[in-house]
Amino acid sequence: MQRTDFHEMACSIARTLDVVGEPWSPLILRDVWAGISRFEQLQADLGISRKVLTERLNHLVERGIIDRRPYDRRPRYEYVLTDKGTELVDVLMVMVGWGDKWLAGAAGPPVLYRHHACGQFSNVDLRCARCGEPMHARDIDLVPGPGAGA
Amino acid sequence: MQRTDFHEMACSIARTLDVVGEPWSPLILRDVWAGISRFEQLQADLGISRKVLTERLNHLVERGIIDRRPYDRRPRYEYVLTDKGTELVDVLMVMVGWGDKWLAGAAGPPVLYRHHACGQFSNVDLRCARCGEPMHARDIDLVPGPGAGA
DNA sequence: GACCTGAGTTCCGTAAGGGAACCCCAATGG
DNA sequence: CCATTGGGGTTCCCTTACGGAACTCAGGTC
């Protein structure tokens, strides 16, 4: 894990990385999103060490990304996305779009999205929340906001 | 950094993490995007160790995210985004949206985006590339694609 | 020729990940 | 009613990677 603390930086990227920037955290989020929700399943699917998996799960629960809840009268637990965590999946969806385009190669994308609204296999596209036009890195200027440091 | 190799996984998230999943890499990308492009500037801005900065820059150059190019007849170099790297910034923009909403607190967002197309301060929104309707985690089904493993 | 500056490299101490073994608890089951 | 099973973690040791400071190198400048 990063030794330098990203939490204090006046940057929403750094602060987001403080939540899911550690190795494995995004993949844990992916698995929980995809329905792999129990400790043993996660450990087997990811091949992560049990120690680190415990740490990451606790961290994600503390930050309100996932909830830990019992699913049996025996001490058995599963992890489910909170609203906060579900919205964080947006980041993963965009990563998938980029990875599909630049890294998937001839085999094609490993996973497809079927959009409920239109029923088609599709991908995400970034648009301006105000005018609806495409909004990518080259389409904007960065301006200091109210929460900027001195 | 991660000891387990994400590169071989049949998952575009894992493969993207193999490129920018190491600690600091996303922040380096952010800085280069924002115009902080030289070694000394990056080191000072991030507070990263010089050794790790060197490793990360080399890694990003190898993966085609940034280019290293001389800006002087002396051995001086700057780093600039490639097209591949510029598209990867989409991921950062979505992270900013999430961080602004869930982590910024009362101070408000540290940075604002002014959209060239409409001139307004805005944020990104995820839409279906086919039908244009909103597309978030709950709006899709995941289906194995052609590049899925056995 | 001495000095400066940007861009790294080297070295050491510490902290984090990997892996295997171990532990705890509730529900069977013989 | 004691032994077993199986999920969900802990504990331990080993190795690797980060942080930080010192050092190097090459071209320009005074």
Verbal overview:
The structure is a homodimer of 150-residue chains. With 150 residues, chain A is α+β, with helices and mostly antiparallel strands. The first copy, chain A, has helices spanning 12-20, 25-34, 39-46, 50-62, 83-102, and strands spanning 66-70, 77-81, 111-115, 121-122, 124-128, 140-144. In chain A, the strands form 2 sheets. Chain A has a two-stranded antiparallel sheet. The first copy, chain A, has a two-stranded antiparallel ribbon with strand order 3-4. The longest helix of chain A has 20 residues, at 83-102. The radius of gyration of chain A is 18 Å and the shape is globular. The mean pLDDT of chain A is 95. Chains A and B meet through helix 1, helix 2, helix 5, strand 3 and strand 4 of A and helix 1, helix 2, helix 5, strand 3 and strand 4 of B. Strand 6 (140-144) of chain A pairs antiparallel with strand 3 of chain B, so a sheet runs across the interface. The structure holds a DNA duplex (30 and 30 nucleotides).
Most extensive interface between two protein chains, with residue counts: A-B, 87 and 87 residues
> Helicity range of the residues of chain A?
40-55%
Q: In this structure, how is the largest beta sheet of chain A organized?
A: 2 strands, antiparallel
Order of strands across the biggest sheet of chain A?
1-2
User: Can you write the helix and strand succession of chain A as a string?
Assistant: HHHHEEHEEEE
Broad structural category of chain A: alpha+beta
Number of strands of chain A: 6
Helix count from the secondary structure assignment of chain A: 5
